């Protein structure tokens, strides 16, 4: 069942339905928190949230970028040595740039 749930989330991601991917991946992580796929699920959740935000209308973009930023911190905290870390850091840098946030502001958000 874990694998089926994982594949469902990946399918939505692969067909670029990022909103559905976010929901499916979030549900999978909640239902199976100790899954062997957790790192990959969290990475795809971060990526889906980032891409959803990037492709959003201006009125929803900031809120979704905030969500992606939160997801980055969650991922980086859970998997500091992840094989996906370099790409996750790129998402973070792009999100920070899109939101015009300084390092000081990031530190406030992170706490």
Please explain how this structure is put together.
By secondary structure, the chain is mainly alpha-helical. 78% of the residues lie in helices and 0% in strands. It has 6 helices and no strands. Helix 1 packs antiparallel against helix 2, helix 2 (18-31) runs antiparallel to helix 3 and helix 3 (38-54) runs antiparallel to helix 4 (58-78). It is globular, with a radius of gyration of 14 Å.
Give a quick set of tags describing it.
single chain, mainly alpha, 111 residues, globular
Summary of the model, kept short:
The chain has 111 residues and is an all-alpha fold.
Number of helices: 6
Helix residue percentage: over 70%
Mean pLDDT: 93
Instruction: Indicate the overall shape.
Output: globular
Percentage of residues in DSSP E strands: under 5%
Record field, number of beta strands: 0
SSE blueprint:
Elements: H1 2-14, H2 18-31, H3 38-54, H4 58-78, H5 85-98, H6 103-110
Helix pairs in contact: 1-2, 2-3, 3-4, 4-5
